[in-house]
Amino acid sequence: MDRDRVNIPPLPKTKDQLKEKNRKLRKELDTLRRQYRENVWSVIENLKRHYDETKHDLTPSYETLKRLIKISTSDEVLEGCRVPEHKHSVQNKGIDHSFNHHSTACMETHLQNAVASRYEPRKGTGGLLQSCREFSGRGDNHAVQQRRREVADMHKSEIAEENDELKHHIQCYDSKFLRAHNRLNKLRQEYSASKQYLPPKRYRLLKEMIETVVEDSKLKPD
Hints:
There is one protein chain. The chain is mainly alpha-helical and 222 residues long. The chain has one domain. The chain is 64% helix and 0% strand. It has 8 helices and no strands. The protein has helices at residues 15-54, 62-72, 75-80, 104-119, 124-135, 144-147, 156-193, 199-214. The termini are far apart.
């Protein structure tokens, strides 16, 4: 009997179903964007602001830099940099779950390539980042504005296309969370390793460590 069964493909989604999916995806993206700004970007902005203030100090701000790094790499901060659970996380789209936050650099690269190959014909990290910029309106593709029209004005095929773009953009934020976790975790490790040096050399190293984090443009939200 089983041999006579025919695999029937799922019925195409109606326009109303696609519109409802679009609404949910936009809500998911808004939530993820807000979580990133509150839990991650606020920490990096605070680190940059206070670090910039030390540049005007007449004497070396050795203790200030130490305090800034400790605050910015606490267990609570690193926990906030973990990718939040959400429906369209790349981790639900074929990512190898053996990757974990103890190897975030490897996982970040794996995630970027997975997103790029799944949703974007331009393979690799370059295509991923360009596509994220385009969808957020900061790329060179002028068709972006058409994609972001109100759903009510779109044809069915356009809604389906935007839904895929929304999934892609949601997963760009997964990459940002992982990159931030990797940066701040490495900052904490380097801070600990720098204790072997005398203050003059360590002071210079602390400045370089902080600058590596705050000057990483890929951490900026859209």
